Amino acid sequence: MSRILIVSGRLAETPYRIRKIERNVYSAEELCYSLAQCADFMDEEIMDPALAEWLSESCGMHELARILQGLLRGHHTPKEFVGAILRECGYLPAGETARVLARMEAGRGMESISKDLSRAQALAGRGQMRQAQNTYTELLDKLPDMERGTRAQIWREKGLHYADSFMFERAADCFREAYELSPVPEHAFWYIASLYMSLDGDEYRSFLEKNPVFYESAYQVEQRAAKAESRFKSGSESRQLRRLRQLRREKQEEAFSSRLGHTLKGMQEDYRQRVTASI
Q1: How confident is the model at residue 28 (pLDDT cuts 50, 70, 90)?
Q2: Is residue 190 within 8 Å of residue 160, measured between CB atoms?
Q3: Digit-coded pLDDT (tens) for 174-221
């Protein structure tokens, strides 16, 4: 079941867009949830006069807007600004609010690069792949070449998110870049895993023959792939597919359609639950 937010004020017809995380919010509770979720990289950008105006005019929260406008005039910190929003809305228990604000305080000393990297990771975690990849690209453009460790980390993150979307060719390119910058076993493993998924058998074997340095990584990849295949063959999904094939071969169309609909409904429900859990 989806997470239910108890609304303070009213739902807005026009959303407020939190530019830092590229998210639209339609209520004070959605705003609080987003601030708590992304506290690590909230900064001065959240101290937006338009936010106070939106809370007043669109959500009817005039007292909160008055408090925020006072904080803006008094040159207060983002932590004080966000703290006022969380406390006035009563979205979180006092102890949890304190922890959120402590995360903001810890994030104040982060370099701009680290904050942007956290932002990209959060975008990718919510499935906003295009925005995340654009942020990664901007980070790579601004980083000096000598920052090899951070550049490798960014290429690895790009690769992981491409792999999550089954875009294995692009993932392999990213992991290759990461490995060339930082030739550690983790980068080698993900590079070979992406090649294993994107190349046909002959191409994959030819690559390994020309690059024996990756033999150990290839062994680990193939061992994991074999275990995953074994688990799948013994699992319920494989049994369902075998039964569907049998019904189709036997031309039991009504039974086939019924079982297929049941299987698809189960897959949809599983997907819905996993997505809800990540929100």
Answers
A1: very high
A2: yes
A3: 999 999 999 999 999 999 999 999 998 899 999 999 999 999 999 999
Place of tokens 């406390």: 87
Confidence at residue 245, expressed as pLDDT on a 0 to 100 scale: 66
Q: Determine the Cα angle at 178 with ends 173 and 182, to 5°.
A: 150
Q: What is the 3-state secondary structure (H, E, C) of the chain?
A: CCCCCCCCCCCCCCCEEEHHHCEEECCHHHHHHHHHHCHHHCCHHHCCHHHHHHHHHCCCCHHHHHHHHHHHHCCCCHHHHHHHHHHHHCCCCHHHHHHHHHHHHHHCCCCHHHHHHHHHHHHHHCCCHHHHHHHHHHHHHHCCCCCHHHHHHHHHHHHHHHHHCCCHHHHHHHHHHHHHHCCCHHHHHHHHHHHHHHCCHHHHHHHHHHCHHHHHHHHHHHHHHHHHHHHHHCCHHHHHHHHHHHHHHCCCHHHHHHHHHHHHHHHHHHHHHHHHHHC
The b/e string for 203-228 (b: 16+ C-beta within 10 A; e otherwise) is: ebeeebeeeeebeebbeebeeeeeee
- Which tops the pLDDT comparison, 120 or 203? 203
Beta carbons of 86 and 92 less than 8 angstroms apart: yes
- The vertex-38 CA angle with 48 and 49, nearest 5°, equals 5
**Tokens 């509770």 correspond to what residue?**
29
105, 79 contact by CB (below 8 A): yes
Q: Decide: pTM greater than 0.70.
A: no
- Calculate the CA 167 to chain-centre distance: 16
